[in-house]
Amino acid sequence: MLECDIRGNKCHKPVFVMKMFQSSVFCIQPPGDSYTRRSTFDSILAGCIPVFFHPGSAYIQYLWHLPKDYTRYSVFITGKDVKDGKISIEKILHRIPKSKVVTMREEVIRMIPRVIYADPRSRLENFEDAFDITVKGVLERVDKLRQELREGANSSSFDFGEEVTWKYSLFGTVDEHEWDHFFYKRNG
Length: 188
Description:
With about 190 residues, the chain is mainly alpha-helical. About 40% of the residues lie in helices and about 5% in strands. It has a domain at about 1-115: Glycogen Phosphorylase B (Rossmann fold, 3-Layer(aba) Sandwich). The radius of gyration is 19 Å and the shape is globular. The model has no long low-confidence stretch (mean pLDDT about 80).
């Protein structure tokens, strides 16, 4: 645990934060001001398995950068269940077999190039960084939209509002999904 008291606050010094992540197996990633926090990426860079409480924290925002099967590299615990005292984060994490933890950490380490920006002057050939992946994803999306427009089809890519684009991008459909309740507040 990183002590963030007033005396010599280590919380704002990256070297201490990264050392903590490197010595941890799991890194808790609750939503902050937005769903995603910088520490999500810091923890991945340190080889620490992220623990998320909302699918918006990573799974639907970084479709090009993170594996679709989130269970390979992270733990998802419903934040509401934690707040309501229905589950214990510690108990859930202790139940994960050591062999699964090793496999998950290996996947996190494989993800590192996908979440960093490489120095273009470096000699790392055959290395796709976050920028390369983003540009590739945008170009593929534009090509798909152009092809649909050329074919004159009622483009499924235009038939839904921006708030559900994550569904289409992740699943190829905007049908109901188990994560809907995380994003839509029901009246009443």
